[in-house]
Amino acid sequence: MWWKVYFWIILVMSVLGLVFAYGRMQTWSLASWIEIVGSIILLLGLYAYVYKKKILKPSFWNIFFWFLIFSTVFDIMWAFTPIKTVLPLPSWLSSEVITNGVELLLGVAISIPNYYAIYRLSKN
């Protein structure tokens, strides 16, 4: 039951985020497209886990899980270390939605159950 509630909350938050965060942007960078596609795949994985549907192979979910972990660790390092002064990202690869470290950490905290669901999909 908790997983279904979590799924619907994440789905509503994702749709609202798409409308309000990405809807106000004039142009979308490559990073914006990657974020949107990643969010859709994450939602698809959560749906598959919550409703016990077989969507894609466990090998896909394993690769996607490790991509999520790498991306999250990189984003946290980017937000909280001086690495961005040494190695700046090009504008087409930097997020326009997440503007500070607190927003990033809040998003990661909310997504931890989703990451767990993707991990479980990779093991079945």
Key attributes of the depicted protein:
124 residues; mainly alpha; 74% helix; transmembrane helix; membrane; transmembrane
Number of helices: 5
Q: What is the helix fraction of residues, given as a range?
A: over 70%
Q: Would you tell me the structural class of the helices and strands?
A: mainly alpha
Radius of gyration in whole Å, from Cα?
15 Å
In total, how many domains does the architecture comprise?
Answer: 1
Number of strands: 0
Helix and strand element order = HHHHH
Let me know the largest β-sheet. none
Basic shape: globular
Spans where pLDDT lies below 50 across 5 or more residues: none
Structural account:
Keywords: Membrane, Transmembrane, Transmembrane helix. The chain crosses the membrane at residues 5-24, 30-51, 63-81, 101-119. The chain is mainly alpha-helical and 124 residues long. It has one domain (1-122). The protein has 5 helices and no strands.
Please describe the topology of this protein.
Blueprint lengths: L1 H21 L7 H21 L7 H23 L2 H4 L14 H23 L1
Please provide a brief summary of the model:
The protein has 124 residues and is mainly alpha-helical.
